[in-house]
Amino acid sequence: MNQPERSPAAASNPYADGCAWIDGALVPIAEARIPILDTGFTRSDCTYDVVAVWHGRFFRLEDHLERFERSWRRMRFEPPLDRDGIRDVLHDCVRASGLDDAYVEMIVTRGVPVAGERDPRRFANRFYAFAIPYVWLLRPEQQDAGIAMVIARDTVRIDPRAVDPTVKNFHWGDLVAGLFEAYDRAAQNVVLLNSAGEVTEGPGFNIFAVCAGTLWTPASGVLQGITRRTVIELADRAGIPTRVEMFGVERLQAADELFITSTAGGVMPVTRLDDEPVGNGHPGPLTRTLRQAYWDAHGAPRWSSSVT
Ligand code: PDG
């Protein structure tokens, strides 16, 4: 599952490190710039989505486009491109890059204020996209061995009534503060609780606990991850029961297995929690089965479409 060596063709392609789409033009990723006054940057007034390309095929592109559209509608954006236009741009970025395995992001921002304008209804919204080499949330050896995670103590997940986590957003202040808590406690990653002490999610991933053969994942206050949905569907097909409900730290602490899910890396094991082993301290059987099933599903025509 690791990145292949760079081919001679890639070495001469200016987009081989990634390709962005800005104002109707493709740009090599290192030269891609946005206007400094774009309120997507100055106010985090934007939404985005990330879809993967694996071995030349988009994974669940229509589901990502649908989630993106739900997000921008909720934030009352009017992107300058419709869904077909956006899909075409994503294909263009990946094709130009020549990447077989890519991390493909689409962003809509409120835009640049004209002459001190402060009424968000009066901005021309902007659309950006890029494709870069596939991003792994965990390094390969961490995916095999699992990582050490902490439950954040000093940081709570931002209240969903303030920032709706089902609308993918750049308000990562709590997630990044949580990561520093993890590093300070000699762990690699973090899961955050909400203000009621219920488990939510972490920086770029959803979380699952396996308890006596049943999968548990938080129902709300989290991004409705496409990887999370894929795992639930794969588990269903394999006859593994899933409970999508809120739960507290005790369920994580008592779990036989823990894993995280993200477009950036798929299904990834967590083998230590707050300095205690999870189960026997090694990736468990359900985690391994679902991780394999996840990657096997990437060629399936119902979920993947080739880059054209
Ligand atoms: N929760 C949060 C807060 C996320 O940002 C993400 C994905 C997920 C859950 C999982 O959703 P999905 O399975 O649809 O990917 N975040 C992506 C990828 C991870 C990363 O850090 O690059 C992102 O933010 O780009």
* Strand count: 16
Note the gap between the termini: 23 Å
Work out the strand percent: 25-35%
The CATH class assignment of the largest domain is Alpha Beta
CATH superfamily of the largest domain: D-amino Acid Aminotransferase, subunit A, domain 2
Q: Mean pLDDT across all residues, rounded? A: 96
Bound molecules: ligand PDG
Q: Rg from C-alpha positions? A: 20 Å
Number of continuous helical runs: 9
SSE string, helices as H and strands as E: HEEHEEHHEEHEHEEEEHEHEEEHE
Overall 3D shape: globular
Helix content: 25-40%
CATH topology of the largest domain: D-amino Acid Aminotransferase, Chain A, domain 2
Total number of distinct structural domains: 2
Largest sheet: 9 strands, mixed
The chain-level structural class is alpha+beta
CATH architecture of the largest domain: Alpha-Beta Barrel
State the low-pLDDT regions, or none.
none
